[in-house]
Each structure stands twice: as C-alpha cells, then as structure tokens.
Amino acid sequence: MNRSEINVFCPATIANISCGFDVLGVALDSVGDGMVVRKRAEKGITIVKLEGQKLPMETALNVAGVAGLALLEKSDYEGGFDIEINKKIKAGSGIGSSAASASGAVWAMNELLERPFTKLELVEFAMEGERLASGVAHADNVAPAIFGSFTLVRSYAPLDIVPIPSPSELYATVIHPQIEVKTSDSRKILKTNITLKEGIKQWGNLGGLVAGLFTQDYALIGRSLEDHIVEPIRSILIPGFDQVKSGAMHAGALGCGISGSGPSIFAFSKGQDTANKVAASMKKVYRNIGIEYDVHVSKINSQGVREMRT
Amino acid sequence: MNRSEINVFCPATIANISCGFDVLGVALDSVGDGMVVRKRAEKGITIVKLEGQKLPMETALNVAGVAGLALLEKSDYEGGFDIEINKKIKAGSGIGSSAASASGAVWAMNELLERPFTKLELVEFAMEGERLASGVAHADNVAPAIFGSFTLVRSYAPLDIVPIPSPSELYATVIHPQIEVKTSDSRKILKTNITLKEGIKQWGNLGGLVAGLFTQDYALIGRSLEDHIVEPIRSILIPGFDQVKSGAMHAGALGCGISGSGPSIFAFSKGQDTANKVAASMKKVYRNIGIEYDVHVSKINSQGVREMRT
User: Locate the GHMP kinase C-terminal domain: which residues (chains A, B) (predicted)?
Assistant: First the structure.
C-alpha cells in the first residue's frame, strides 16, 4: 500500500523525570501536535503550513524541516516532502514542543517510505531538530516520542535507547504556568559537582523506578520519584513549585517534579480520577498566585507518534 | 511440622555491581557456607561449633550471634538457639562472608519459629551482623543473601529493598586473589564528590542494567555494566585488575568489576561454558603474576539462603 500522505499525532513528552535527570522521558497520549506529511516529486522539504504558534517556516530554521533533512540525507528516496504543522504544544513550555515536531516529521516520512529506518535511526534524525532548537542534540524527549511509553537514554556514544513499559493505569498531570524560564538560566543554575552520597541516592531511586515500571508497582514508583540533586535548585525558578508539589501529593499523586527544564510541572497518578484531582489542586495554586496556566491530564502513550485516521 | 533443627546453605554475594555501587547486589548458587541451627530451651544464642575459619565464637562478637540476638529481641520465642557454622567463604575476600553468616542465622531461626518475620525484617536483623563486622549496617550483601537473585537497596530510611529477577542463563565467575585490601583503605580512597556528568552516566547505566535483568537482554546487561566512578580508583589497590578484566571480556564475559570493596573480581557471562572460559583467563593472570587465588563459577542463586536436606 504505497501512500502519498499521512496524518500523524506528535505527542508531548516529559523529560528529566525526577531521579531520571537527563536520561528518562515519557510520552503523553492526549497532549500533542497534529501534522500532515505529503510526498512530492521535487527533492527537499517545505513547511507549507504552520498553524497555532509563531515559529520559523524556513526549512533550515524549522525543527521538523531539519530533522526531515537529516532523514532525507540517509535515504535512497529521490523525491521530497511537504509538511503541514498544527502546533498545539507551546514552545518553551517544557513538555517537548520541538521534539514533537522533529519526531512526528521523521516518523511520518519513514511510514511513507515504507519503513527503511529503525526507531533508533529515527531518534538520531530527530535529535538534529533538537540541536537546532536548543543547541544540544539531546534525545530524552525525542526517544519517548518515537518509542512511546518510558525510555531511558543509557548512552549517547553510541546512542543506546532502552524502552521501558508503563503500568496500564498510570496517568500524568502537567501544569504549564505561563512564565518564561530561559533554558540558559535553568542550565547555568545547575551544580557541576554532586556528592557521591547524593549520586548513590539518585541511582538507587532510578533503579527502583525502572523496577516499579516493569512490575507495575505503583507504590514503588511513588517512593522512587525523588530528586535531591536538580529539583531543589531548578524549582527556585518556578514560582509556586513547592505548593504545587505538596498539593499534588496531598491529592494522591505518586510523585511530582519539574518537566524538562520547566516551567511545566508534572505529577504521576494511579488512575484518571486521582490525576484529575491533582489537576484541580495544581490549578488552585496558580489561580491564587495569579499566574495564567494550561493543565493537561493524560494517560501514558504506549506507542509514541501515531497515525490519525481521518 | 514443628522442627527443632535446620541445615542451611548461606550464599556468597557480590555487592557494588559496577554501576550499582552501594545499591545493587546478587547471590551466588554454589559458593557459600553451611550452617546448622538448633532450637533449645535456654534463652540466648551459642555458637557451639565453628569450622573452616578462625573467627570469634563469643555470641556478641560473632556476626551470626549478633544477627540472631537482634531477631530474638523482636521475637515472642522463649527459648534460644545453638549454631554450628561451617565457614567456607574467606573473611575479607569481598564476597559477603559476614553477610552469609548473618543472613543464614536469621533465615534459619525464622524457619524454625515458623516464619513470624518478613524477609525485609530478616534483612534488618542481619544488618546488625554487618554492623559488627564492618562498623556499618549496610544491606547490599545481606539483602541478596535473603531475597535471592539481584536486589536493589533503594533507601535505608526507611529500608526499601527491591527484588530484581535474574535471566536464567546468567553465571558469575569470581576470582579472589589472596592479597589483603583493608576496607578502611578502599573507603578512604573514594572521592567525596563526583561530577554531575559522571552521575548521569552512572544512573543511565543502572537503569539499563535493571531493564536488562527484567527483559533477559544479555547484551544490554553487558553494555550497562560500566562504572566510571569507583572502579577506576579502587582497582588501583588490586594488582592485575586491568589484565583480569580485559582477559575476561576477551573470553566473552558480559561485564567485569570489583566485588564488594575487593579484592575479589567478578564477571558475568551468558552460559556456563563462557563463565568457565572466563575463569581460566582470570587464573592465568594471577598464575603469571605469582599471586595465590580461589576461583568460583556459579549460577545466580534465585532463592537466597535455602535449606539443605541431608
């Protein structure tokens, strides 16, 4: 079945999941962009439509364009692609806006070309979009966007992505307070050194989290969602963080932390009801402080980017 | 069936498994001590026989005695126990000699009392034996000795032990070069601080290792068995370490590192044949250097301390 057009859902993702700083990410199921990718005879990639956000449409300045070009370079395909993007994830929100576009584009192209590339290769192409967006070709958002569920970036040289399953009743609540946290600031603020003791705690927790995800042990997942290294520092840049976190835990969340480098805050819960209660508690904090916000409640997305049948 | 005597196998254990420094341990199947525990009317614990090693027999100075007393203190049992120990694991070898005695004693007593205590409680009692042996009540050897297979010590306060399964064809090879490495030296030599970058690598690898153990992915286990933090420093105290490791890897091992705080060196392999080849390569190194050694090849022990039917 040789198709010339595909309509895909490009999921938002949470990276830097507490103890999984810089390695662990997860894909969301009901938060994401829409994208249509169309084959054409002429070589190259054109962003023919970009709705929802003000972002560059020039191919070399657009993350979907750059990721797509990385794929085309390794492909035998003689033609090119037109891309329409319906951007719903806000840039700079901390839930993988650029990763959604980069991953969606390369996944869609791979489908239209009848899957010449592995998922790992698609991640490598999508990382070029991340390089454009942030200066660093990181994989912790594009990997879950392409593989689905949770993923661990075990190593970059060589790139080693470990897919990790998600318990069936795991839900994420994400609140995006409409403040600007410059990525450069949230990087600068990090310490270069940590104590060995802090490190041991962190890898103990990460081991517990991975084991909890494999065994569907929600209590263990909750106990392991700790971060004594990055969260205490970065949370200073997010007004209301401590209240949001304590409110979420009080409402029954398993754990709560900073999504990506912020300012979005995520919480995981067992079941949609609890996730909704967590959302209500989070909203209340920013209503009281007087900061605008978006809130999302989503099941974990087990497949990543997917085709939307229209 | 109210028994008055039990004969148990007390397994050797490997702690500080590469990226799992201070949190990950594993139990061995064919390396360990023998122990007979017998109920008696009189309160207290007596080490009535101790063969194989020169170790204190006074209850308060013997790890099995001290661990047993910790159990008795929490028990309704009005009587006491006599213990016979056949010590085969050399003290100071780095494969959990004290942990084997402490774990075996409390496990055996719990059986004779018809299991009033959970495995987690048994670990807590056995940790008192470790406190006597090394000054620190660490759990990374006693936890796998009692739970079997791999265990992760996620946290000490409260104590949180996470059991992790072992792939069916995983074998360990351990070589014990007969040199003395003082635990105090191997502790002093550690750095107090590490870089955040090193930390990220380490928890990425630990996540990969735990995932590999759950999915029986031997290649992933192998790729994850890295330690850039402790091994480069502590290995300086073990003559021949680099040759042993490169020889083991050349012979087909999945990974190789320091067992506990040394001087024993462990390697994991898929299948017994490879584990035997690894053993041969390790022996060769110490034969050439002229250091006496013991070598063990063992399947991973999935149940921990167990009854030996005589």
Answer: 211-287
Q: Smallest CA–CA separation between B207 and chain A, in Å?
A: 5
Alpha-carbon distance B42 to nearest alpha carbon in chain A (angstroms): 42
Q: Tell me the two tokens of residue A185.
A: 């600031």
Residues of chain B with C-beta less than 8 angstroms from the C-beta of A203: 19-21, 23, 199, 202-203, 206
Looking at the structure, do residues B67 and B84 belong to the same domain, yes or no? yes
Q: Do the bridges between strand B80-86 and strand B44-51 make them parallel or antiparallel, or are there none, so unpaired?
A: parallel
Q: What is the pLDDT of residues A235-281, one digit of tens each?
A: 999 999 999 999 999 999 999 999 999 999 999 999 999 999 999 99
Write down the mean pLDDT value for chain B: 96
CATH of the domain at B241: 3.30.70.890
pLDDT exceeds 80 at position B182 = no
For the cut 90, the answer to whether the pLDDT of residue B188 exceeds it is: no
Using the beta-carbon criterion (under 8 Å), do B23 and A204 form an inter-chain contact?
A: yes
Q: Decide if B203 and A23 are in contact by the 8 Å CB cutoff.
A: yes
Cis upstream peptide for A158 (omega within 30°): yes
User: CB B154 to CB A202 under 8 A?
Assistant: no
Q: Which residue has the tokens 């584990």?
A: B275
A10 with A97, same domain: the answer is: yes
Q: What pLDDT score was predicted for residue A7?
A: 98
A152, A196, A223 ranked by CB distance to B194: nearest? A196
The answer, yes or no, to whether residue B125 has pLDDT greater than 90, is yes
Tell me the one-letter amino acid at B36. V
Residue finishing a domain among B164, B197, B225: B164
Query: Given an 8 Å threshold on Cβ–Cβ distance, is A207 in contact with B152?
Result: yes
Mutate to test the interface with B, among A18, A26, A162 (most CBs of B within 10 A): A162
Within-domain flag for A307: no
Residue B309 falls within a domain, yes or no?
Answer: no
CA–CA separation, A234 vs A227, rounded Å? Answer: 11
Same domain, A147 and A205: no
Structural domains of chain B, count = 2
pLDDT of residue B107: 98
A218 & A154 share domain:
no
**A183 counts as catalytic:** yes
Look up the ipTM and state it: 0.95
Structural domain harbouring B198:
170-299
pLDDT recorded at residue B308 = 94
Does residue B177 sit in the same domain as residue B148? no
**Whether residue A248 sits in one domain with residue A160:** no
- In the chain, the amino acid numbered B8 is V
| Mean pLDDT, chain A, whole residue set | 96
Q: Is the pLDDT of residue B292 over 70?
A: yes
- A156 with A23, same domain: the answer is yes
Catalytic residue among A130, A173, A226, A274: A130
Asked if residue B27 has pLDDT above 70, the reply is yes
Are the Cβ atoms of B207 and A205 closer than 8 angstroms?
Answer: no
Give the residue from A147, A165, A183 where a domain finishes.
A165
Structure confidence by residue, pLDDT tens digits, A126-169: 999 999 998 899 999 999 999 999 999 999 999 999 999 999 99
Instruction: Return the pLDDT at A186.
Output: 79
d(Cα A307, Cα A36) in Å, to the nearest integer?
10
DSSP for A180-200, written as a single string? ---HHHHHHTS-SEEEHHHHH
Taking contacts as CB-CB distances below 8 angstroms, the residues of chain B near A160 are: 208, 223
In sequence order, the 6+-apart residues with CB closer than 8 A to the CB of A80 are: A39, A40, A41, A42, A43, A44, A45, A46, A72
Indicate the pairing of strand B293-299 with strand A306-307: unpaired
Residue A152 sits in the same domain as residue A174: no
Inspect the interface and report whether the beta carbons of B207 and A155 lie closer than 8 Å.
no
Catalytic residues of B: 130, 183
Task: Give which of B154, B193, B224 to mutate to test A binding, by max A Cβ within 10 Å.
Answer: B154
